[in-house]
Amino acid sequence: MDLQSLGLIGLFIGCFLAATVIPFSSDALYIAVLAATKDPVGCLLVGTLGNWLGSVLTYWIGWIARWEWIERWFRVKREKLEKQKALIDRWGVWAALLCWVPIVGDVIAIALGFYRCKPFWSIALMLIGKFLRFAIWTLLIV
């Protein structure tokens, strides 16, 4: 296996993990692999796919969570959850476009699942947001 393939595999894994609750920057990794491989199309597709699938996993983790678990394990009061639900209800699936934002993007993805926002549209808009973010990086770097 050549170094370019290894770089793309590492990019996929790193972008996937960065879109879960593991805190690190997929942007820095993306820029490094893009510069090393000189493969803008491969990096754009692989980085987007990995980051999007990580957010999809985070969305489904939110989907299976229960209010009682959040209150008990994370000591979050029901009133705070209801305030967050009001924000998600206000923005709805459109909030999924912001799942690429560092730190808060993971919270948005899990909240979209937790509050049962429409799965198809949430996941589709996550894909669009993540693709646009990596497309902009690609255009800036190449």
Helix content: over 70%
N→C terminal distance: 25 Å
Radius of gyration: 16 Å
Q: What is the approximate shape?
A: elongated
Multimeric status of the protein:
single chain
- Count up the helices: 7
What does this molecule look like?
The protein is an all-alpha fold and 142 residues long. 76% of the residues lie in helices and 0% in strands. Helix 1 runs parallel beside helix 3 and helix 3 runs antiparallel to helix 7. 35% of the residues are buried.
SSE inventory with pairings:
Blueprint: H1 3-18, H2 26-37, H3 40-64, H4 67-73, H5 78-91, H6 104-114, H7 119-141
Helix pairs in contact: 1-2, 1-3, 2-3, 2-7, 3-6, 3-7
List keywords for this structure.
single chain; 142 residues; mainly alpha; 7 helices
Quick take:
The protein has 142 residues and is an all-alpha fold. The protein has seven helices and no strands.
